[in-house]
Amino acid sequence: MKFKVTSSELVSMLKVATKGFDARDDSSFIYLKVADGKLEVVSRCQSAYFSGSVNVTNVEVEENEANIYYVDGDVLKRLAGIFPSVPTNLEFEVNKDSRVFVIRYTGNKFKLQIVRDTQEIPRPKIKPVGLVQATEFMDVLNSLLKILDNNPDAQEHPSSCLHLMFSKDQMKSMATDRFAIAEMTKEFSGDSTLDEETLV
Description:
Blueprint: E1 2-6, H1 7-17, E2 29-35, E3 38-44, E4 49-55, E5 57-60, E6 68-71, H2 73-82, E7 89-93, E8 100-105, E9 108-116, E10 130-131, H3 134-145, E11 161-166, E12 170-176, E13 181-187, E14 189-190, E15 198-199
Antiparallel strand pairs: 1-5, 1-7, 2-3, 2-6, 3-4, 6-9, 7-8, 8-9, 10-14, 11-12, 11-15, 12-13
């Protein structure tokens, strides 16, 4: 497989799309998918899912070649900081028998290891529950996240958690680390179908 992508668009997309990768989480992954004239990057861990896409050109695919590749997330994040932030053509190439992407531009060459071959992971189903001002939401999160335990072993554990509770007109946020607990409430434009509090 070969394709080209504009570096400035790729770098901008990777800054967001790779946020779901957590090297401390053994179940975390990043994969690249080329289909319908686009390169899609998907990253996921136990607590987050991010994706993004950019247009690709000059796509060449061998017969029966896969179009989804799980790659080394740490290396991809480092490459995002190396690639030019100005519009430059990046050429990606992978042979179906090799285990690396070779990425070239203006005399430079980088390798991105393919870590495994796996089927595409289904997208999580997302149900909108309403709207809240982004700045107010981040103010709440930044305050409450200070309470949580940063130890990876505490992830997905009730001893250190952040709960968001949505109703028709309020968003309640509560955080604890076993030793402290805090709660904040903000106005919220909830979905009219929310008959009861929704806990996230």
